[in-house]
Write a structure and sequence with these properties.
488 residues; alpha/beta; TIM Barrel; 3-stranded antiparallel sheet; 17 helices
């Protein structure tokens, strides 16, 4: 018998004045609070423990080991545990239970966010970056074929952009056609929408609701003044008040989650935002509130494009320094990362202390938020999770959208050397194998692939953010300690 390599422990002495220890196993997701004797017993377990040593265990110790084994804290040996990890990632990769597709209805946006590269795609009225209804029909046909091939029991469609509501005809078409296709196949379907909230109306929600609308994620980057500075219209006008008005109008019609992207200049405005949200009549309808850091230091450059003309010099962040393709990175853009589905992917340049600070502040106001640990594996490790751009290119992750060299295919089935190579690279992706015995492999899988590609030049080199995971476990331990006090 041996201690699992996925055990994480937090002494509760400093958190609750107790000698107890909080244990978590990231593979089984088991969480226990144990006394110091059990923690010491766990320390003593090793591969070389002799049979006579095991026989010398007391009945209480044997009972403790049995309980620890049931929850995965004790395993027969590390070799078999590593094989279980291999099997886990194989199952994640090849599972056909669910088909997940993120569709970018357009690359256009009516905002001029100072951290977003999407301003490079020109004025939002240009039709060149919008998906046409003809293309949408081909996208729907491609998805229907995937439903038939995988025999998936559930399907999740995420509408994204740019600003997806700038192309409502395509959004409605995809929702209604794919809902009918799912119903005909006996497949459950959910729709998530990631939007800046400016064009969100009850009419939009009511049109999508019959098609399985699951949730809408809206971004607020700090309090009113900070948000208006970071997320203005292209003409420089503020957007906060209109978004809040729209949230109020749709509250109760669907699940609403609030996201936000912070940097060193804005993070301390979030408590004021949280206070404001807690005071609103729609607060009970917010299913989740979570914030993540902005990536600013990969490639910073000043643009003089349309967004800069409207809102001053604008900082754009490109996440691929090699080649001419410019992906849409900046912050994690998957549906999970954006908070639309209840998951979270905050692995884009962790600011561990700030993340922990904002999680605590969010929980203080009674909002549901990410715990900072349950965040993966990312959808990029799932064979049947796809992102489709407005032109029909297929990507493994929204963070690569726009970089043609990272496209893995096209909805028309055409391929070339770049697509073939990209598809092979993602099929073989396994950065987690370089992480050795890190306890967070099951929930991290080697970190953000976009970050590894852009910062390290190799998708199979881990983008490590262990410190932030550790901070998340400490927060969970603090909550567990508080629960014990309340129960006593």
């Amino acid at each position: 018998m041996q201690s699992s390599m996925f055990n994480v422990r937090v002494p509760l002495r400093d958190l609750a004045g107790s000698e107890d220890v909080f244990l978590m196993n990231t593979f089984t997701d088991a969480q226990l609070v144990v006394g110091p004797e059990v923690a010491s017993l766990l320390d003593r377990l090793s591969e070389s423990l002799a049979p006579q040593g095991r026989r010398a265990l007391t009945p209480d110790e044997r009972a403790a080991i049995e309980t620890l084994s049931e929850h995965g804290f004790v395993v027969p040996d590390r070799t078999s545990e590593r094989q279980r990890l291999e099997d886990f990632f194989h199952d994640v990769r090849h599972s056909e239970e669910q088909l997940r597709v993120t569709v970018l209805t357009t690359l256009q946006c009516n905002f001029a966010c100072d951290y977003c590269i999407q301003g490079d795609h020109g004025d939002y009225n240009r039709t060149a970056t919008k998906m046409s209804l003809e293309s949408a029909s081909r996208v729907a046909g491609w998805i229907e074929s995937r439903l038939d091939e995988t025999r998936a029991s559930s399907f999740v469609l995420t509408l994204f952009g740019g600003e997806p509501l700038l192309n409502l005809p395509v959004a409605y078409y995809l929702a209604e056609r794919l809902w009918a296709a799912a119903q005909a196949r006996g497949v459950s379907m959910q729709i998530n929408v990631i939007t800046n909230g400016l064009l969100l109306t009850p009419e939009v929600v009511d049109r999508l609701a019959p098609c399985g609308l699951n949730g809408i994620k809206i971004t607020l980057d700090g309090d009113r003044d900070t948000h208006n500075r970071m997320r203005p219209l292209r003409g420089g006008q503020g957007t906060f008040d209109k978004i809040i008005s729209n949230i109020r109008r749709i509250a109760g019609r669907c699940r609403i989650s609030i996201g936000g992207n912070f940097d060193e200049s804005s993070v301390h405005s979030y408590p004021a935002l949280l206070d404001f949200l807690a005071e609103q009549d729609f607060a009970p309808h917010l299913s989740r509130v979570a914030f993540k850091p902005v990536v600013r230091d990969v490639i910073s450059r000043v643009s003089e494009g349309p967004a800069a003309t409207a809102a001053g010099k604008t900082r754009f962040i490109g996440l691929t320094p090699v080649g001419e393709g410019k992906p849409l990175g900046g912050t994690c853009m998957t549906s999970a990362g954006a908070g639309a589905t209840g998951g979270a992917c905050d692995t884009c340049h962790f600011a561990a202390d700030q993340m922990s600070f904002l999680r605590d502040e969010t929980k203080k106001r009674g909002f549901n938020t990410s715990d900072g640990v349950h965040m993966g594996p990312c959808e990029i490790h799932r064979k049947h999770a796809h992102t489709i751009g407005p032109d029909g290119d297929i990507y493994a992750c929204p963070g690569f959208t726009g970089d043609k060299k990272m496209a893995t295919g096209h909805i028309d089935g055409s391929t070339d050397a770049f697509r073939s190579m990209a598809a092979q690279r993602f099929e073989q992706l396994a950065a987690w194998k370089e992480c050795r015995d890190c306890a967070f492999i099951p929930v991290c899988a080697g970190g953000c692939t976009v970050a590894s590609h852009s910062e390290l030049g190799d998708m199979n080199v881990p983008s490590c953010h262990k410190r932030s995971f550790e901070a998340g476990v400490v927060s969970m331990a603090r909550d567990a300690a508080a629960s014990l006090v309340l129960a006593s």
